[in-house]
Amino acid sequence: MTPTVLQSASATLDVAAFERKLRAAKAATVPLTTATAAQKNAALRRISDAILADAGRIIEANAEDLERGRANGLSAGLLDRLALDERRIMALAHAVDDVIALPDPVGTTTRGSRLPNGVSIQQVRVPFGVVGVIYEARPNVTVDIAALALKSGNAVVLRGGRAAESSNRLLVDVIRGAIAEAGIPADAVQTVDEFGREGGTLLMQARGLVDVLIPRGSAQLIRTVVESSTVPVIETGAGVVHIVLDESANEHWAVDIVRNAKVQRPSVCNAVETVLVHKAAAQRLLPSVLTALRADGVTVHADARAHEIFPDSIPVTDEDWATEHMSLDVSVGVVDSLDEAIEHIRRYSTQHTESIITDDLGNAERFLAEVDSAVVMVNASTRFTDGGEFGFGAEVGISTQKLHARGPMGLPELTTTKWIVRGSGQIRE
Amino acid sequence: MTPTVLQSASATLDVAAFERKLRAAKAATVPLTTATAAQKNAALRRISDAILADAGRIIEANAEDLERGRANGLSAGLLDRLALDERRIMALAHAVDDVIALPDPVGTTTRGSRLPNGVSIQQVRVPFGVVGVIYEARPNVTVDIAALALKSGNAVVLRGGRAAESSNRLLVDVIRGAIAEAGIPADAVQTVDEFGREGGTLLMQARGLVDVLIPRGSAQLIRTVVESSTVPVIETGAGVVHIVLDESANEHWAVDIVRNAKVQRPSVCNAVETVLVHKAAAQRLLPSVLTALRADGVTVHADARAHEIFPDSIPVTDEDWATEHMSLDVSVGVVDSLDEAIEHIRRYSTQHTESIITDDLGNAERFLAEVDSAVVMVNASTRFTDGGEFGFGAEVGISTQKLHARGPMGLPELTTTKWIVRGSGQIRE
Asked: How close A66 gets to chain B, by Cα (Å)?
């Protein structure tokens, strides 16, 4: 553990005030770590109630953000993501209620044994301590992540998008007031939004004060955090997601799964971006698969062989293969073999999710074994890579890294473990 | 995942050659990931045999290191750590045999279920891919870590201490030759020692080519890696380890445990550095505990109250409290309460291991719950924080961080997981 001495190049930034906030969050971890599930649930219940009770004030604060956003020329899409109304505020409160219903991961024994000398060892789940979250302009993340952090016994330091600053400030106030009433220190929830851009930079350097940092948002945001942070980061991720249509693929499944994976919700990370089809199946499958996509307004970026079979397409570029479009665009290529498909995935995938549609058992097993992604699938839609779908009940994010958590993360992924050793005077021989 | 473009400020360094080595290691992960335990064990058997068969050449190469070390004025202790003889080479081979005996963690199903729609999901252990290791001048680490990496299906890129360069080069040659004979690509084991200091720097920047980096060695080395690396790091750690003698501590246990924790092997990270005693027990415990330590040649660094009780001591400094001495030195302080002891630990501990000696159940439980360290103990020697003692069979290191692994690491901690999803045409509603 490295003692942290925060420094800033900016003369205007009050680094001492920033550090005080982080130390207050750290101090709040002491009672939080030992809080019972009942105490944490009572605090969450207060949050849910307070959000509903303060709906009017929240909407007023949100109106300031919307007004500033319109003045700054924010797109209609971004303004929509930012906007809160009565209905969305009820959804915020319900999201907190959902977290109340989740089992508390803290205290679970994950392993344990009695050593030959009689010493008992037990590995138990404990909170991380202080979780930092850097995210973009969606006020619902403020509430979601605070609720998930508290339920898993963590203090949380939030750095939200500037566009949602007024909404977030008020939401944090409401949350802090609510948990204090339930006997959890208000300082367990902090925002560093008032420190602006530099606040995010300082947060990334706060090793020893912040135990883990989770960026949520664009690929650019995540990359910046991953590259700049000395605090350990859980990378949640961009998805350049592939579906491979093997020689033996069932046409009906191919059409349904590709369409579902591309069209059902194109703006999310588990939506498919690239379809690779075996050359022996291209004539059989591409017309029906791509016609279905076109009917839903998808633009097909095709390589030369795919274009020949499906002329209603534009040329795919090398950049397309590497891009998470998050839109109604799909890249399509014809490959000579399963090896070539796997090689393409190895080159361009962000190691999020890949699926193969096949009736060939050997190819299915090879794909599952050789593709190095967080989630690998056979004959299923990539849209299933989701904490809710996996039955975790919570949406902490989808990790595309290999340390600590990989794939959809539930509440247990917001905890670490400690070893508890109980002896009766034993020493090592 | 960030595509890596390695860059170096040094004109003399052949960055392209460096990158080729890493890409070769990455390519070797493909067959390694799917290698069976039998194949990996056969390769390990060849390594063990080859080390014994090549003992003469290894000792010759080691003699070059020793000669250079003597010329450079290395201390007797460092020369001893560096030296290999017939007996130590047999120990190297036996360490590989021990790894053969360990169960293969790859392929273990850690969780799984069938979703309501019939899709089956399964979380299985898979290798990281490429593990980078940066360590200091102990040639045994070269063999140990290569064996552990291979057994867990990982390729490994080694950056050893310059003082052991000739020994390491030959050991890597021997290992590469041995595994190639067993059908595992030689490129699964790489050294980048020939790139010197800059090689380590490049390794820390090789995000996307190296999946995880493990520094092993001094606190300074570990801190450098943790602060400079963009590759995810598993921090194995320095131990400023505490023992608290509570008011009710059994004197016999206190003497035995403190003595064992300090004297049995003072140069390791689980040795105790600081003893804190409750003021109500100081008169009763300190004389016998510290007399026993003095008899074993320990220098006692005492605070004012401890010095009054045990005058055969020198003053403790603030730096002492924060120092991992790794020598026959111990810092001793008297505290007014358990709270003060916990507060002291919170301030100075490296969160490795802390133990309390007590007969008071409430204080024991408070200590276990409130001390935020990888291993917390009651009435046991801190020397038990060890993979071997915990029954893991392997010594990968002791993690002092909270992500991925915490405390003693066994072979499973050298793996990640992936989710395998099997459907029959399911799409998301």
From this structure: 33
